C-alpha cells in the first residue's frame, strides 16, 4: 500500500486498486473530513458512515422545512473524498460554498441544496448521495448512519453540582458541563442498510477524530449499526482528537474519551487506538484505557506542522498505513 495523489480518473471509473483495504469511517463534521482526506490517499474502497443529527445552520433549516436528513455532514464527507485534481478541487470548493445575502438563501451551502434537490428528484437518500459522489469523482461512498433524522440528548453534570438535559446536537457540542449519558430520539432508529452492509464487509472500521459525543459516539446508539460494529470481522481503529475541544469534552483526558466509549458500547472490542504523542498527557493511563477495550496504543505524529489542532492528511495517511499493514508497533 502506497500513499498516492490521484488524478481522479480511477475513482470516477469505480475500479479499486487490488491491494487496497476496504475501510469504513464513522463520524461527522471536520473530524470525519480529516479521516477521509487521509484515507482517500490509501484506498478507493471507502465508505463514510455519517451522523444525521445536525440541527443547526443550513442543515437544520432544510431539515425542518423539508423533513429530510440534515445534509451538512454528508456534504462535508463528499467534499473530503474529492481528489486533488482540478476537477476534485473545483467541486469540493463549490460544494462548500455558502451564499451571503439578506434573503432566504443566506448561509445555505450549495452542496446542501444540491443533495436535497437530488433526494426530492430521486426519492432515495442513498441513491442521491451516490449521484453526487459520481459527479464529484469522489474516492468512496457516503452513507447516513440512520434512515431518519435524529435528535441527540445528553444528561450533563455541571460544576455547581446541578444536572440538566441538553437537547440537540448543536447544543450538546457546546455544553459547558460533563456529559454522563447520551441518547438518541427516536431511541431505536433504523440503521441505513447500506451502512450496515459496509461495516460487515469492511477490512477496517475507523472511528474518530471529531466531536466525541455528538459526532462519534452517537453511531454506537443506533442499534442496527452497533450490532454490525460488534459482529463484523473488520478490525477497529479509534483515532483520538489532538486536544480536548471546548464544550462537550472540555477537561476530559484522552483516557476518559476511551472510558466514555466503553461506557456507551461495553461489548465493542477495539484493536488499535491511534493518537498523536504531542497531545497525550499521560501515555501510561491512555495505554491502560486502550487495553481495557482490547486495543494497543499507537502513537504517531499526525498534527499539522504549524502546531494547530488539525490533522495533517499526509501524516495521518502514513499512520493509517502503518496500522493497516501491521507495522504500527514500530516506535514513533
Automatic annotation (TrEMBL):
What keyword terms does UniProt attach to this protein? Cytoplasm
Any single Gene Ontology cellular-component annotation: cytoplasm
Q: Which CDD domains match?
A: YvcK_like
Any one GO molecular function term: LPPG:FO 2-phospho-L-lactate transferase activity
- Which compartments is it annotated to reside in? Cytoplasm
Q: Which GO terms describe its biological process?
A: regulation of cell shape
Compositionally biased residues, Low complexity: 8-19
NCBIfam families in UniProt:
CofD_related (TIGR01826)
Relate the protein's function as given in its record.
Required for morphogenesis under gluconeogenic growth conditions.
Q: What name has this protein been given in UniProt?
A: Putative gluconeogenesis factor
Organism classification: Bacteria, Bacillati, Actinomycetota, Actinomycetes, Micrococcales
